[in-house]
Each structure stands twice: as structure tokens, then as C-alpha cells.
Amino acid sequence: MTVHEQFADDLALYALGSLAAAERSPLEKHLDECAGCRRELEQRRGDMALLALSAAGPMPPLRARQRLMEAIKREPKRQAAPRRTAWWAIAGWVAAAAMAVVAIAEWRDSSALLQEALRWRTLSNQQAQELEEAHKIVETLRSPEAQVVNVTKTNARPQPQGKAFYVRDRSSLIFLASNMPALPPRKAYELWLIPKQGSPIPAGVFKPNERGNAMVINPPLPAGVEAKAFAITIEPESGSSVPTMPIEMMGAGE
Amino acid sequence: MAQLYDRYAGIVYSVALRVLGDTGAAEDVLQEVFMQLWRNPGVFDSSRGNLGAWLAVIARNRAIDGLRKRRPETDIADVVVSVEPDLASEAERGRAMQKVRSLLGSMPAVQRSALEMAYFEGLSHSEIASKTGEPLGTVKTRIRGGLMVLRKAFQG
Fold first, then answer.
1. Are residues A137 and A169 located together in one domain of the fold?
2. Contact between chains at B48 and A65 (C-beta distance less than 8 A)
3. pTM, 2 dp
4. Domain-embedded: residue A84
5. Single residue among A108, A142, A176 that ends a domain in this structure
6. Nearest by CB to B27, which of A55, A64, A117?
């Protein structure tokens, strides 16, 4: 993919944060649509990192380290991450468990990320809780009772695809998606559990990564709901309580 | 966290110090950047680039926001940084640092200065143009050209 020459100068300035507001919005609009220019922007940001090295040398005083470590100790126990990034909140052993899933599904790009999450979270003080979470995930994946639901885009080529693993008795849901189309700015995908009776239930907000892959693991769900289907809509980043039409993707249980 | 701090605090602090010119303010940026990462490690996507480069970019942007007293324009979770050298080892960082300095030193003075004004002072291209009395287009091309020199050198 090539960079559009008319945006090349602006991309460099955008990476620097030096682009005038009037020129920023046409560029951002173009970036939403053009993977080649997005990649170019990532590289320009890489140049920013190289430039930072030219300033390298001074080291922070020891008190800065102490200040950080004390602030970390004072932090309240971390709550679940915001819904948008719920699956990031999974940690340590959970990441290891999820990596197994990821390998099966050839989510190669995610595995590096999960390794990073593993390294990070093993440093945290929540390992016991994480281990329990991990067991739950593994059990869900292995459970003979798990509904495995294929969700495909309606009336379209078969690229975007999602797979939901749902165990009703545990209210446990794991959802993996691939080839998801890029979202408009400030929008996210929302997964919905369509119950046998009643209104659709929000089952996690997610944004695909650069390769269009995404995961939702154990979103908060009411207990014991029987799922008729799962569906995906595009919603504001904060998620909605009622789905906004149209339904982008949908799949019924086996 | 301590390990990550020991590895990357130098680069985060030095870029903030160069931008802000004040050790106290640079320490605040250092604290803020690492606390953000601690509170939400998900803001950094390791499948897309290395942590050292990402921290350097976030620290520089945060310092510029402080200097220019403006609100951050980009969500840090949306900042993806792609760069050749993996800055995880001290030796690699040292080598890359030498190389960048020598590349900057070999650039024409006007180009180097345009790049540094944009990078370390956070000036917009029109501010640089009015400061140097040069046309906007020239400033834009100069900045892009400077970045291309860096990139080509690191792509081998």
C-alpha cells in the first residue's frame, strides 16, 4: 500500500502535533479510510521516538523512582477496566490461558500483546484472583455445554467473522472476532446477547486492533440467560443500553 | 513496574527535560507517564511496536502539551509507533542515540532547526514559518525531509 503523496507532508506534521486544526480534520478523515497512510503515520511516530533519543542523557533523580513506587502502593486495588478495554484487564495467568485460544485462532498479533500483559500483570498483586479468572476461561472453552456460535456479516463477503463461547450457567462469555472493518471515529462495536425472551443484553464493547481482530472476555451479564443469538452493532465508544440499528453482524446458537 | 521504570525512565525523563527545561516539571511528566501505564497497561499495544519507543513519544507529547498549556489532542491508546531499532537494551539505545545525533549534526542547520523547533518546542509549521520568514511549504518539506533522513538511516 502506498502513501498518498498529497498527505505526506501533513502526516509528518500530524505526528509532531504541529498540524493546523483546519488541516487536521481532512487528514483524520482520510486516515480513517486509508491503511497505507495509517502505517505511514506509525512510521512517522517512530521517527519521533528516534528524535527523542537525541535528548537522551540526563537521568531522573532517585527521589522520582521512590515517588512513583509510593504512588503505586497507594493506588486503590484496580477495578475492572472500562468496558471498552475490558479484555485488557485480564491478567497474568488469564493472559496465558487466552494465548492458547489465540494460538488456535491464529491471532498471532495478539499473542505478543498478551505476552506483554502477562509480563506486566505478574508484577501486580492480583495473581490469585487472576488465576481464578483463568480457570473460568479455560473451563468455558473446554465445556461440553458451551454454545459455540458463529457470527457472520449478512449479505457480504465472508471476511468479518466472530465466534462466541457462552456458558449460560456460569454467565461466562468469550468472544473472538476477526477481519472486523475499521470503525468511524469515536465509535465502537457492541456485542449483544439476544435472549430467548426479552430485549437484547449488552455483552461488551470492543474495538478491533489494526488487523481487525478483537476479543471480549467475560463481560458483566445477568445470571442464567438462555441465548438465542449474538449480534453486533456500531455504537458510541461508551456503549449503549439498546442496540442502534442496523445490526452489523449476527449469529444464532447451534 | 520497577524493571520497566529502570529501563525506560531515562529516556522519558530526558525528553521531558529537554522540552520543558525544568527538572521538577520533567519529573511530573515521568510520574504521569508511568502512572498511566500502571493504571491501564492496555493503552500500549505491544503487537504494534516497542514500549521504549512508545514511551518516548508519549512523554514528548505530554511535555509539549504542558509547555503549550493545551489539552492532549490524541488519546494515547490510539498512538501506534513503528520503529526499527528495539530500544529495550541499553546498548541498542546507546547506538541509536549516537546515530541520531550524528544524523542531526550532518543536516543543514535550517533543516535541523526546523525539526527541533517542531519537536522540542511544539511549534506549528506556520509558527516556524513566521519565525524564520520562510514560506509554509518550505517548512513542511524541510520537516518531512529531516524525518526521512532519520528513517532511511535506520532502515539501513
1. no
2. no
3. 0.57
4. no
5. A142
6. A64
Which of the four pLDDT bands, split at 50, 70 and 90, describes residue A79?
very low
Please judge whether A71 and B35 are an interchain contact, meaning their C-beta atoms are less than 8 angstroms apart.
Answer: yes
CATH of range B87-156; options 1.20.120.910, 3.30.720.120, 1.10.10.10, 3.10.450.50: 1.10.10.10
Span A23-33, pLDDT tens digits = 888 999 999 88
Could A56 and B15 be called an inter-chain contact, meaning their C-beta atoms sit closer than 8 Å?
yes
Domain boundaries, chain B: 1-83, 87-156
For the stretch B86-143, pLDDT in tens is: 777 788 888 889 999 999 999 999 999 999 999 999 998 889 999 999 998 999 899 9
B58 and A17 Cβ atoms separated by less than 8 Å: no
Residues of A in contact with B1 (CB under 8 A): 68-69, 72, 123
B1-83: CATH class? mainly alpha
**Among the partner residues B59, B100, B154, nearest to A54 by beta-carbon distance:** B100
Highest-pLDDT range among A13-27, A89-103, A176-190:
A176-190
Number of structural domains chain A divides into: 3
Element spanning B147, H or E: helix B136-155
Q: How far is CA A26 from CA A7, A20, A105, in A?
A: 10, 11, 37
**Residue B77 CA, distance from chain mean position:** 16
Local confidence band at A243 (pLDDT 50, 70, 90 cut-offs): very high
Compute the distance between CA of residue A248 and CA of residue A115 in angstroms, rounded to an integer: 31
Nearest-angstrom CA–CA distance, B59 and B25: 12
Out of B51, B53, B93, whose CB is closest to A46?
A: B53
Residues A128 and A157 in one domain: no
Cell triple for A178 = 476477526
CB contact under 8 A, B38 and A72: yes
Same domain? A181 vs A238: yes
Look up residue A80 and give its DSSP letter: P
